[in-house]
Design brief:
This protein is α+β, with helices and mostly antiparallel strands. Helices cover 34% and strands 23% of the residues. It has seven helices and eight strands. The strands form two sheets. Strands 1-2-8-3 form a four-stranded antiparallel sheet. A four-stranded mixed sheet has the order 6-5-4-7, with helices on one face.
């Protein structure tokens, strides 16, 4: 996994111009659990890479950088509550459940916007993002996508699912 990450890191310096691979590698070697999470992200199509530092913690943000929402994480409703309430044609699972299995946090709107500032992602797909309780309590959930050179944040019922909507996750290392 370290070799895959190193190659991706070198190929996409625009995502982390002020960072050297040696620092990222040192952090990863000290955190084998993070390497295991990154492996699961990779296996589900996420193509993880770092997008720099988290301002609050000083840790590195490793997130899904696949051009489209990870293929192994699509056709899912938002959370377990929505999955239980979806009695007719339920999806195979939820974003919440899959994120726990992988070991990631569902990408926030802030991190999604940061990723989009570094390139063009979700041109044909969309990605569920972390949704505030004030929206989720009313049955909704948020997702983002890029169209017309603009990043949009939308809402949908949390129980909805589409073959082109997945989710992106992240970890701090």
């Amino acid at each position: 996994m370290l070799e895959i990450l190193k190659a991706r890191f070198s190929e996409h310096k625009e995502r982390h111009p002020d960072l050297e691979w040696s620092e990222a590698e040192q952090r990863l070697i000290k955190d084998p659990a993070a390497i295991a999470v990154l492996q699961r992200m990779e296996e589900s199509g996420g193509e993880p890479d770092t997008v720099g530092y988290d301002a609050k913690t000083g840790k590195l943000i490793f997130c899904d950088c696949a051009k489209e929402s990870p293929a192994g994480r699509r056709s899912l409703c938002y959370d377990e509550k929505a999955l239980k309430e979806r009695t007719k044609n339920p999806p195979s699972g939820s974003v919440e459940q899959k994120a726990k299995e992988i070991g990631v946090t569902i990408m926030t709107e802030e991190i999604y916007q940061r990723l989009q500032s570094l390139g063009s992602y979700d041109l044909k797909t969309s990605s569920w993002i972390a949704t505030p309780d004030s929206i989720r309590s009313k049955g909704g959930a948020l997702f983002c996508e890029r169209r017309y050179d603009t990043v949009f944040t939308f809402h949908n019922g949390a129980d909805s699912y589409y073959s082109v909507r997945g989710f992106r996750g992240y970890i701090l290392v």
